[in-house]
Amino acid sequence: MLTVIDRYVLKQVAKPLAAAMTIGLLMLLAERLVRLLDTTLGKKNSFSVVFELLAYLVPHYLGTAIPAALFLGLLFGFSRLSKDNEIDVIMATGTGLHRLARPVIVLSMLLGLVSLFIVGWLQPQTRYAFRSVMFDVKNVEVFYLAEEGVFMQAGTRTFILDRLDRSTSKFSNIFLFDYRGPSGLETLTASTGVLIPVEGQQRPVLRLENGHRLKLERWPTLDEGVEIPHARIGEFATTDTPLGKVTDALFRPRGEDERELTLPELFAQMDQPPEGATPNSMRSELHKRIVNVVTFLMLPFLAVPFSIGRQRSQRGYRFGIAMVLIVAFHEIIEQGAVSTKSSGFSPWLGMWLPFGLITAFAMWRFYVASFTLSPDRIGDGIDGIGARLNSLWRPLGRRLGMGAQS
User: Which residue from 68, 65, 93 is spatially nearest to 8, judged by alpha carbons?
Assistant: First the structure.
């Protein structure tokens, strides 16, 4: 059962956590929104496609936003409790810092379980769905990027339109050239046409009306002794032809990339990786996901000692050091995963050793802050560096006109 103090601590942490997660997720999605609009603008149902792609990206960014938001929420929540002397008052009642941190430790465990579901099952599925939609956008609906009087490429076909009505997918005066390499070529001209989507098919059908066709069975050459290929010329009232890339018309099945595999699939295929993966890439992906999940258990023990301090402590510098530490840890894990994938470097040294070191550091600081009366030498050192930097900045700020006005 949650006590009044537990609920109060969770409330102080939840506000900055929710704000950080919302702002971070919106910023990450906004950056991708611009690139998606560049890719899909002008295509059929472009805005609905953009929102569908953004929905598939949410689990990917949540994997980064949740731990970052939790760490910021812990820093700001406990810093406010410390700054307002509420921690001192609560501890005066006999409640230790370790008991005060218990609800946020439980919260970290719950968010870790959510992260396990996201990175273990949801991310692989949505990553594949995102790539599948992008494949369709780039390879199937090339017609919807067409402009009047501009040559466009669709697989082996090059075409140009005189007039185009996007609302009805109709056009007039089309010239289409299909280069088939050694198999020859085919040229079509038509007065009118329409693009017809086919249910269940990846490629739409291009229906041409009132046109002419010229076809060569092989590409002509100027070599002596080689007969000039006979040209077949004809007229047609209506003809249908699929539009889009002839090869790779269907997107590949899920699982050729190790990042598209769920955690059970990674375990099951570790010794027999799919065609697009290697044993090293499978090991790297598996260990990286597990490290990212268990990191949630370490975050409260790392954040709480950095957020508490004396009334005049340099909290801004403490926050800065804490953020640099967690960002550096994340980059070390990323580089460890890259080393395991590229050269077979041991994941126990590249990822688990840094995790063990930062966890030991966090547990030691939390133990000192909770169960001993020893001074916080690291915190005092950060405060001393911050005070010296402030003493150097004030004269410079006054010279630059940034000092306080009397």
Answer: 93
pLDDT tens for each residue of 375-390? 666 766 666 666 666 6
> For the segment 208-253, what is each residue's pLDDT rounded down to a tens digit?
888 888 888 777 776 767 677 778 888 888 877 766 543 344 567 7
CA dist., res. 32 & res. 263, Å (int): 27
Cα separation of 340 and 348, whole Å? 10
CA–CA separation, 337 and 283 (whole Å): 9
Contact 267, 286 (CB under 8 A): yes
Selection from 86, 92, 108, 93 nearest residue 9 by Cα: 86
Q: Distance between CA 207 and CA 188 in Å, rounded? A: 12
Please list the residues that pair with 238 across neighbouring strands. Answer: 209
As a whole number of angstroms, the distance between CA 73 and CA 83 comes to 15
Provide the token pair at 175: 């010239």
In percent, how much of the chain has pLDDT > 90?
38
CA distance 67 to 302: 13
239 φ, ψ to 5°? -145, 145
Output the average pLDDT for the chain: 82
Residue 246 pLDDT: 38
Neighbours of 264 (CB within 10 A): 10
∠ CA 379-384-387, rounded to 5°: 125
Give residue 195's identity as a one-letter amino acid code: L
Q: Looking at the DSSP assignment, which residues form a beta bridge with residue 236?
A: 211
Structure tokens at 101: 């941190």
* β-bridge partners, 344: none
Res. 291: pLDDT tops 70? yes
* C-alpha angle 34-23-132 in degrees, rounded to nearest 5: 45
pLDDT above 80: residue 391: no
Largest Cα–Cα distance of the chain, in whole Å? 105
Round to whole Å and give the CA distance between 207 and 167: 16
The residue with tokens 């059929």 is 44
Helix (H) or strand (E) holding 164, with range, is: strand 157-165
Separation CA 362–CA 191 (nearest Å): 74
Cα–Cα distance, 321 to 376 (Å, whole number): 15
